[in-house]
Design goal:
The complex is a heterodimer.
Chain A: H1 10-20, E1 25-31, H2 38-47, E2 53-56, H3 67-78, H4 83-91, E3 99-102, H5 105-109, H6 113-122, E4 125-129, H7 142-148, E5 151-153, E6 155-156, H8 162-171, E7 176-179, H9 195-205, E8 210-213, H10 219-226, E9 231-234, H11 236-243, H12 248-263
Parallel strand pairs in A: 1-2, 1-9, 2-3, 3-4, 4-5, 6-7, 7-8, 8-9
Helix pairs in contact in A: 2-12, 3-11, 6-7, 10-12
Chain B: H1 3-18, E1 29-30, E2 33-34, H2 43-57, H3 60-72, E3 80-82, H4 84-90, E4 93-98, H5 108-121, E5 126-131, H6 135-147, E6 150-156, H7 157-162, H8 164-172, E7 176-180, H9 187-201, E8 205-207, H10 218-240, E9 248-252, H11 257-264, E10 272-278, H12 283-286, E11 288-292, E12 295-299, H13 324-331, E13 335-340, H14 342-356, H15 362-374, E14 385-390, H16 398-404
Parallel strand pairs in B: 4-14, 5-6, 5-8, 6-7, 9-10, 9-14, 10-13
Antiparallel strand pairs in B: 1-2, 3-4, 11-12
Helix pairs in contact in B: 3-5, 5-6, 5-10, 6-8, 10-11, 14-15
The chains are: A alpha/beta, B alpha/beta.
Chain lengths: ~260, ~400
């Protein structure tokens, strides 16, 4: 019997299905509003073999982001975009993979969590990552997202202790975001040494999909990370290319190269 | 009301007020504000710091070491000076709590010596700090030199221009000063950058936050380290005033540490508590509930939730948020928060300098500006008494003052 997942379980079911079919998951990231044609980058990512696309809603003070995403966010905000305007653009998009939003707590809570959850749902978003909303601050916030069918994806860091990691794995919906490094987002020359440990520890705690992110910049990094986790998130390396003027098709080609390396691993 | 009844009423007020400005509990909540909104990477460090602080604060030896350092090194207790000529001019009795006389020239040293001793006790050898006016950076550089630690201070590029002298002082003391070029290039961006650096170096470094802000336990811990200001002042007022306590207690508010320390000494009295924010950075007056730099409070922001830049002549008050406990004290009506404009502040600097021979910091002058404005009005009636925390000295502002004359 096939069970069609609905609501908050959609994202996890989608990722699980692909993982269980033997595929390494690839989630590229696009800073919403980075350019007037930013949604074309989202489409290009989806068409190049992404399993989901992460959409960064820019915040003025991105505490966990390094220079590249800071610059991308700044550029977007300078264009006068707002979370509402960006989500409206997203709603009009016809991509075939799930969309996951990443933003900061202040954006989420500005008009209250229920209102934000409704907006995400209306835009067709099925997951949410909020790096400054840790486990302890979740209780007052999580319910409206669950109700709106938006998976609240939690992060685990190299410093996260085992007991807490178990609770994160339990509470997280969609997937668990394993942060490879004690640091901010940003391109790196090599995969952080702490990446494998994080992935192994999360995997030991849960059967949910585990994706690694932060600093995964090249196809060989993605392949290395996929040896320990179910997949990868690639953000700064792609946004660096956009900031340097790469067109949607060029970023699509980068994503295709990542896809290809993961498929041939 | 007859005397006995009033005594009973006061007793009720006192017991309710005593529980204010207390331990905010494991979640670090002050009413609906506070909390710990940080990435997972920082959770173990915040937990360890809370445990370390609870342990140290309950340890008589730690407290004695801190007390001794405050006395023998930092020059505590600082006096309360009756501002006699100003009082005569205004028709109200003005007392000044002289944090300008503390070592390094402001109250910031109280908090920094506490945190540096705590960091050392926890085995950390590197202090990270953000700074606006540079006073907290100088204090951190000073403590690092005193205890043989490394100091890295993040400072907005714009503030580095405004506070050149303090940049030089920090470097002279052996600290590394890192210019922050993102965003508004002021205090808020320096905070973000210090938090990012802390994520990266969390194993070896202690983030020495300069005010009653940041994730739990900082707002509580910094208030406790600044409590000495209010406790000293309360005892000093008792010796100076016939009524033993002032009618009004006023302090400037950036993040709110000098105000929190001052208020903590008077929160269980009937004194009115007044915090003065910069008109261009008034989180209580113009802000809305939000989350910034790891805590929930009132934050200057637009309708979409983007944080607005604060604009003030004083770099130390150029912060779009406010400590969560102040937001709570405002909520419950125990303290009121008002604003002062740049022009009022400049006038207050000159007025105090001429009347009393004391050159106050631009930050502290916000508190004075309110006194000048309120004296003789129902907010501060003729014949009343007011304690003003003079959080720092104005030497650092000389160049800026000269440019504005
Ligand atoms: C002299 C002085 N007063 C006040 C402040 C504001 O800080 P807080 O509100 O934490 O006391 C500063 C900050 O730099 C300062 O240097």
């Amino acid at each position: 019997m096939t069970v069609v997942a609905t609501g908050v379980d959609r994202l996890e079911a989608h990722l699980r299905g692909r993982r269980d079919a033997g595929r390494a998951l690839l989630v590229p990231y696009v800073t919403a509003g980075i350019s007037a044609d930013w949604t074309r980058y989202v489409e290009a990512c989806a068409e190049a073999g992404a399993d989901a696309v992460e959409i960064g809603l820019p915040f003025s003070d991105p505490m966990l982001d390094g220079p590249t995403i800071q610059e991308a966010s700044h550029r977007a905000l300078e264009r006068g975009v707002t979370p509402q305007s960006l989500l409206a653009e997203l709603a009009g998009l016809a991509v075939q993979v799930p969309l996951v939003v990443m933003t900061y707590a202040n954006i989420v809570l500005r008009d209250g969590a229920p209102a934000f959850a409704e907006r995400l749902s209306a835009a067709g978003v099925s997951g949410l990552i909020v790096p400054d909303l840790p486990l302890d601050e979740l209780d007052d916030v999580a319910a409206p997202f669950e109700a709106a069918g938006v998976a609240m994806i939690l992060l685990a860091a190299p410093a996260t202790r085992p007991d807490r990691l178990r609770r994160i794995a339990e509470r997280s919906r969609g997937f668990i975001y394993g942060v490879t490094v004690m640091g901010t987002t940003g391109e790196r020359d090599s995969l952080a040494a702490s990446a494998a440990g994080v992935a192994e520890r999360v995997r030991a705690a849960t059967d949910r999909p585990v994706l690694l992110g932060f600093g995964i910049s090249r196809p060989d990094h993605a392949v290395q990370a996929a040896a320990h986790a179910d997949g990868v998130v690639v953000a700064s390396a792609l946004m660096r290319r956009v900031l340097d003027g790469a067109a949607p098709a060029e970023v699509g080609a980068d994503v295709a190269a990542l896809r290809d390396a993961l498929d041939r691993r | 009301m007859d005397l006995m009844l009033r005594g009973i009423a006061d007793g009720v007020v006192d017991s309710a007020r005593r529980s204010m400005m207390d331990d905010p509990g494991p979640l670090g909540r002050f009413g609906r504000f506070g909390g710990r909104y940080v990435p997972e990477a920082l959770i173990p460090a915040c937990e360890a710091l809370e445990e370390g602080f609870r342990d140290a604060w309950a340890d008589a030896t730690f407290r004695a070491t801190l007390q001794q350092t405050l006395e023998l090194y930092a020059g505590r207790p600082t006096p309360v000076t009756p501002a006699l000529r100003l009082s005569a001019e205004l028709g109200v009795t003005v007392l000044l709590k002289r944090e300008d006389l503390a070592h390094t020239g402001s109250h910031k040293i109280n908090n920094v010596l506490g945190q540096a001793l705590l960091a050392r006790r926890m085995g950390k050898r590197h202090l990270l700090a953000e700074t606006g006016a540079g006073q907290h950076g100088v204090a951190t550089a000073t403590a690092a030199a005193l205890f043989g630690m490394r100091a890295t201070v993040f400072m907005g590029e714009r503030d580095m221009e405004r506070q050149e002298l303090n940049v030089f002082r920090m470097r002279l003391l052996g600290a590394e000063v890192v210019p922050v070029t993102s965003g508004s290039r002021t205090l808020k961006d320096a905070c973000s950058e210090a938090l990012r650096a802390w994520v990266t170096e969390v194993a070896d470094a202690h983030y020495c936050i300069g005010s009653v802000m940041g994730p739990h336990p900082y707002p509580w811990m910094v208030r406790e380290f600044q409590r000495v200001v209010g406790e000293e002042a309360r005892a000093q007022c008792a010796g100076l005033l016939p009524a033993a306590q002032p009618d009004v207690v006023v302090a400037c508010v950036g993040g709110g540490s000098n105000a929190a320390g001052t208020f903590a000494g008077f929160v269980d009295t009937t004194a009115r508590l007044v915090g003065v924010e910069a008109a261009g950075g008034a989180a209580i007056t113009d802000g809305a509930p939000g989350v910034l730099h790891g805590f929930q409070s009132q934050v200057l922001q637009d309708e979409a939730g983007q944080v607005r830049e604060a604009h003030s002549i004083s770099a130390g008050l150029d912060y779009p948020g406010i400590g969560p406990e102040h937001a709570h004290l405002a909520d419950i009506g125990r303290a009121e928060y008002v604003t002062a404009t740049d022009e009022e502040v400049l006038a207050a600097v000159e007025r105090l300098a001429r009347a009393e021979g004391i050159l106050p910091a631009l930050e502290s002058s916000h508190a004075l500006a309110w006194v000048l404005r309120a004296a003789g009005t129902p907010a501060l009636p003729t014949g009343s008494t007011v304690l003003v925390t003079l959080s720092g000295r104005g030497d650092k502002d000389a160049e800026q003052l000269a440019a504005r004359r």
